[in-house]
Structures are given as C-alpha cells and as structure tokens.
Amino acid sequence: PKLNLQCQLFMLRLSKILSLFPKRTFPCIGRAFSSRGLKEKVLLQLDTLKDAQGLTLIDSKIVQDVLVEENTGKVDIKVEVSTDFPKFRRKIMETLSSVTEISDLKVSLNPIKPEKANEKEIPENLRGIKNIVAVYSCKGGVGKSTVATNLAFSLKKEGKKVGLFDADVYGPSLPTLVQPKDGKLLLTDMDPPQIIPIEFNGVKAMSFGYGPTTGKSAALRGPIVSQLVQQLLNNTLWDELDVLILDMPPGTGDIPITLAQILSISGSVIVTTPQKLSFVDVVKGIELFDQMKIPTIGGVENMSYLMCDCGKIHRPFGAGYLDQLEQQYGIKNTYEIPIIEELSKFSDSGTPPVLVLPDETELCQIYSKMAKDLIQELQEMNEAKKTVPDVFFKEDDNLVVIRRPGEDDCFIKPSELRKKCKCALCIDEMTGEPLLDPNKIFDSIYPISIKPLGNYAISICWSDGHSGSIYSYPRLASEEIPKVLKVRIQVK
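The structure assignment produced for this chain is given below.
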C-alpha cells in the first residue's frame, strides 16, 4: 500500500538517525536507505519548514501531496491553507531551490471548498442570497471598485435585488463611490448584534470604511483581516438578494482565497487595463479562481480607449488583450470601458455614473449590457445544465467523449487535445506564439481529471503533470480540435 506523506517522512527521519550508526549495526535498513530519489530529497527539504505552531508543513498537513516525476525532474506540491498561501508558496519555492535535480516546480492550492455547500454551513444572513459574484483584479488601480459599483447599480436598474460588499479593509473604496446622506451603520438589538447595511438607490452596501474611524491607518495582519472580513460579511442583514457583488481587494492574497473557500461564489468578473503587465496578472487571477472551482464569466478592460470629438477612437495604452482572454480562457463576455471625464467626476462625488448619465450614453449602454449578460449567464448556470455537454474520459478506448442528449457523441484523442492547450505555459501571453512542442506530447497521455468551469468551459489535469488546460465548449466543438469518430447515441 502507498504510504501517506507523514509515514514517508517518518521513514526518512528514521534513516537519518540510523545513518549515524556504523553500517554493520543495521545492515538491512542501511541498504534500504542507502540511495535517495528526488522525492526523498524534496521531503527532507520540506521537513525543515515549520508553521506558526512549530510543526513541519507536512506534519501540520499544510502540504497535502507531493507529486514527483523522477525521470523528468518535475515536482508538483499541493498545499491546503485558508490564509497566507503566497507566503507558504514563496517559502517552499525558496527552500527547494537548492535541490538541483528539480527541473520544474509547481506549488498549487488544494481548495477545501465542498462541491456543494450544505444549508447548515451557510451563515444565516447569507441564506437568502441566490447568487454571489466576485469582481476582482490582480493589480491595484485598474478601476475594479468602480466597475463593481456601476455593475451593481446596473443590475438594480434591471429589476434585481442587489447587495454590494467591499472586501478591502486596507483601502476601502465604497465610501467614496457611494455616499448616502445618512451613511452611519446601525446595529440591531439582536444577540449578537447584527449590522443593518447602508442602502442607496435600492442597493444594500457594506464596507469597513462605513464604520467609525479614528483617523489612523489600519495596521492589521493577514489572518486578522480575513476574520474581520468574514465577520462583517456574515453579520450583515442582507435579507433576500438576487445578486451579491463582492468587490475583492486586488491581488491573490488571504482575503480572496478565504472568501473563495467559505462562500459558494457563482462566478467572477475580472477587471484589467490594456497594458501588458496588467494582462500577465490577469492570467494569475484566472488560474487561481479556476483552482478554487470558480468560473470567470466576464472580462472588463477599463480605460480601454478615448473617443475624440471628431469621432475617432484613440487607444493611448495600446490595443489590449481581450481577444487573447477570450481565446485562451473561453470567456465570451468581454467589455471595453472608455476613458470619459464624467466617470471620474460622478464617482468622486459619491454617485455612480450609471445613476446620473442618460441611459442612452455609451457608458450606461455598456454597463446595461454587462448586467443583462451576467443575469443570463447566472440563469443558465442555475438551470439543470441542460445546455452544457457532459465531457468525460473513456479509458477503454483512450478517448475524450463530448456528449449531448439526442446528439452525436464527439470523440477526441487526448494527445490532440493536449496539443491544443492555450494556457500561459503553452502559448506566449504577449505574442500568441506557441511555446509547446507538439512532438513532445506522446499518444499515451490521458486526462487525470476533467472538471466543468461554470457553463462555459472545462479544466483538465493531464498525466504529464500539466494542470492549466482550459477548453471552452464552443472550441471543443469547433474544427480547430480534430475529432476521430462520431456515433449516434439514442437517448430515451
């Protein structure tokens, strides 16, 4: 039987102790541990890392699994944490840098979120929320909070019951973007007291910035901030909502990971700008949310262009990367937000522009379409997935099967599908040029797991250790990916 990591590490520790004795003392055990492979070296290095309680990362089960390809030198470490994932990832990468046999090192998050949240696991104040949508970015200053706010009020204009939660404790933006006349938070007489959210034009809003302040900067550590955000979210009386918009803090730190693990987030909207650097960080964010099994259902490029009085469009920051976002990750709903003076003017005054500008203006039209697309996307996701095909691996024939009731099955060779991967490791993010050598993909490759990402794509982990492959359903059905045989399936 396969030993778990704790048992494997115990045996290695024992071998280190026995190595202190003369070889003739324990000749059999000495021969058993005389040579160490790559995995043993990795485990011994990980044994030097400890958590805040003084336990090694393996003993504390922060490191859940260590996958090693001895012949290629590839190492994939699965980590399970609720906070400080970037810190643990950096420490592991630094510690294992001394193992020269490692050719490719990955440290990925093993989510602790259940497939379907139990009613008892959902805090009482969140049980009336039908959908939770996270608006996020991996770089500050891209206008994420402005997008989240205007999207929330555009959803309200479509007749939905909407809430807006500012999850940024260090730099809350909502009190600037939404300034009601009476902006004081009220507490109920319940035990424990519950928070009554600010309400502005029918949207319920909550932010750390609405609370009483001392005029001093908040100096809080990551785990404390995550707990504070959870309490603020769970203790707010949201009542019945069609959609709760989460305005995530920038980056991939403690708060986004914690909220993604404890909440049943329906989907996410990524906000970026046309610059290359912003797009690189977008890729990190999409891949993180994919690991958390949260589909990215919309992409917004802010400050995308400037409309001249003469009618000509100028792009001061370049053409942008929305096309690549759609091609690589199958995100069909993408939007360009122009640079306009009114956007900054009304946002700074505390009133979302979509409430002030006429509905026929370009900005209001964009956000209206964004809101309608989001409603449609959530509706399709909440249905019985009748429009989403079933994609699975048929081991006996070594084929990936795409099945829709009443239609012909599509069969794809795993090797052909692997060659068509467009992740950041297989396609250059900037130029779109292929990085993957198709001659290095063997016919024997097969998918270890196939997981749906909302109603727009699937994510595949491969037997060669690659785990970043995302294929949209339209792309799977297109001629770009070769099919081998079609068989009519009779569905009764």
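Interim note for the steering committee: Residues 362-382 form the longest helix (21 residues). The longest strand covers residues 129-136.
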